[in-house]
Amino acid sequence: MDNPTNLILIDSDSRRRAAISHALSACRIHVEPFENIAELAAAWPRNGVILIHDGASSISELIEKMALHGTWFPVVAFSEAPTAGRIVEAILEGAIDYVAWPISAEELNATLVRAIDRAENVGHAKLREVMARSRIDRLTRREREVLNGVASGLSNRLIGEKLAISPRTVEIHRANMLNKLGATHTSEAIRIAIEASIVI
């Protein structure tokens, strides 16, 4: 099977990195190996699929780095004998697929093709979600409550009644919330909240 794209390999185990690179070279898959996420962040490739060894918080850290960089790569996680629960968690954190190591080069190549197909559908949406969540994280608890009120279509007076604060205080929180989100209009703040999945 022809190589669909570059494979960006992130794995702190040098022996396993070498074994994966060697195995995939037989299938003419170009591998760019990195020891860790920081090393990748210092030299972002132009394109590719990321194959990352699933260590503690490695996937969520990688997704955050991609959000900061504004670049999205489909992520395939791998580990030895993963549990079903861990696979589900990794997918929820942003991985497109999960494979158990060891895996044949042919199977991995097929996984990469699937990952590229899936990434076209969910990749940009996932990046927008992560970027929106990083903006929402800047808000105070009260600013989030005001955002939820705004997203529910409530006026400043009704938000104030609900939160037991004055409409003027709501206005101040609303202005601060818009500023922190980098939103010029309320509708933009609501869109960010929807993308961050805090409003349905």
TrEMBL record:
Top-level division of the source organism's lineage: Bacteria
Keyword field contains Coiled coil: no
PROSITE patterns noted in UniProt: HTH_LUXR_1, HTH_LUXR_2, RESPONSE_REGULATORY
Keyword Transcription: yes
A Pfam family matched in the record: GerE
HTH luxR-type domain sequence ranges: 132-197
InterPro entries: CheY-like_superfamily, Sig_transdc_resp-reg_C-effctor, Sig_transdc_resp-reg_receiver, Tscrpt_reg_LuxR_C, WH-like_DNA-bd_sf
Keywords, alphabetical: DNA-binding, Transcription, Transcription regulation
Response regulatory domain ranges (all copies): 6-116
Official protein name in the record: LuxR C-terminal-related transcriptional regulator
